[in-house]
Amino acid sequence: MHLTIEALREGEDVGEAWRAAFAKWRELLKDVDGARVTDLANRIGEAQIDYFERRCGGRAMGQEIMAWAGIAYFHDAEESSFGDDVEKARKIYDAIQLSHASVEVKLHAERAAITYDLFEGVEEAGFEDGM
After folding, report:
1. Which backbone phi and psi does 76 adopt, to 5 degrees?
2. FRET pair for 6, CA 20 to 30 Å: which of 31, 38, 58, 80?
3. pLDDT tens for residues 15-43?
4. Taking Cα atoms as reference points, which of 57, 54, 53, 37 lies closest to residue 105?
5. Which helix (DSSP H) or strand (DSSP E) does residue 89 occupy?
6. To which H or E segment does residue 75 belong?
7. What DSSP line would sit under 5-74, residue for residue?
8. Nearest 5°: CA angle at 122, between 116 and 128?
9. For residue 7, what are the CA distances in angstroms to 12, 33, 37, 57, 60?
10. pTM (2 decimals)?
11. What is the pLDDT of residues 52-66, one digit of tens each?
């Protein structure tokens, strides 16, 4: 979120980039319940350069927005949780990590997952030791 915050501080309008990202995630996740993680990973990998980096503020900003919007997609701010959609959110995280997306996207996704407590109570995720 550092690039987004910096852009906001500089007075840049990043709202359209975020709206575009959520629109793309809506498309990518249209069949998330029935989709295999590998199929979702393929779609995500293709979307990084073809969509997110072109429509969401350039390479670095697009990578950041791509990952954060994907992880946050099913998060309910009012409830401060993923609720019944936690498995969908974990599927998105797994698909990002499995995809051919850049290491930067994968690191942003990891930071977002930690921030949103996506793996709270899941020891095998590797987050319990403060990663």
Report:
1. -105, 110
2. 80
3. 999 999 999 999 999 999 999 999 999 99
4. 53
5. helix 86-98
6. none
7. HHHHHTT---HHHHHHHHHHHHHHTTTTTT--HHHHHHHHHHHIIIIIHHHTTSHHHHHHHHHHHHHHTT
8. 75
9. 5, 35, 33, 10, 12
10. 0.89
11. 999 999 999 999 999
Alpha-carbon distance 91 to 62, whole Å? 21
Q: What tokens appear for 44 in the block?
A: 């995500």
As given in the structure block, the two tokens for residue 95 are: 């698909």
With tokens 């919007």, the residue in question is 69
Tokens (6 digits) for 48: 């990084």
Q: Report the distance separating Cα 100 and Cα 2, nearest Å.
A: 23
Angle at 115 between CA 103 and CA 128, to 5 degrees: 85
Q: Which residues on adjacent β-strands are paired with residue 81?
A: 76
Tokens 């069949």 correspond to: 31
